[in-house]
Write a structure and sequence with these properties.
Length: 157
């Protein structure tokens, strides 16, 4: 248990920072998409942030035997499970969140996920690896956009 508390105190500021940044970008993308009920979206995003932080805390308390994705999913499922007090309210607030506006910052984070090791590799290999990386990022973005457009067309939205 002491190890779990140490993990919480060491890692919680980072998790909070990344979660707040992701939720903030998601709220901005909802604003850019012209969503009218931004307050409801902000409440739903806050709930998602609470689920993320609670999932990470449970991961650290349990000794990291299961990945954070498991615990975040379990917390979110428990909060929205029928019969749990407040679950209808939780579901109502989270349903206000647009899927497309949510994945936009996630894809941006993925494209910007270059580690410090990668930067030194860029320096060693020169301009050609940067050009290849740009085309890979561009291809990933276009491919993701095409898949998202196909999903929208199929769902009839």
């Amino acid at each position: 248990m002491a190890r779990g508390i140490n993990l919480i105190t060491e890692n919680l500021p980072h998790v909070l920072g990344v979660t707040c940044a992701a939720l903030g970008l998601t709220l901005v993308s909802h604003f850019a998409a012209g969503v009218e009920n931004l307050l409801t979206v902000a409440i739903g995003l806050s709930l998602l942030g609470i689920f993320v932080v609670a999932g990470f805390v449970l991961t650290w308390i349990t000794g990291e035997k299961l990945p954070p994705l498991f615990w975040v999913s379990m917390v979110a499922l428990a909060a929205g499970f029928p019969g749990v007090p407040g679950s209808a309210w939780v579901i109502d607030k989270i349903q206000a969140i647009s899927f497309i506006a949510t994945i936009t910052p996630v894809l941006a984070f993925a494209a910007l996920g270059i580690r410090a090791d990668d930067v030194s590799s860029f320096r060693q290999n020169g301009l050609k690896i940067a050009v290849v990386a740009i085309f890979v990022f561009l291809g990933t973005f276009i491919g993701s956009a095409l898949i998202a457009q196909l999903a929208i067309m199929v769902s009839g939205v």
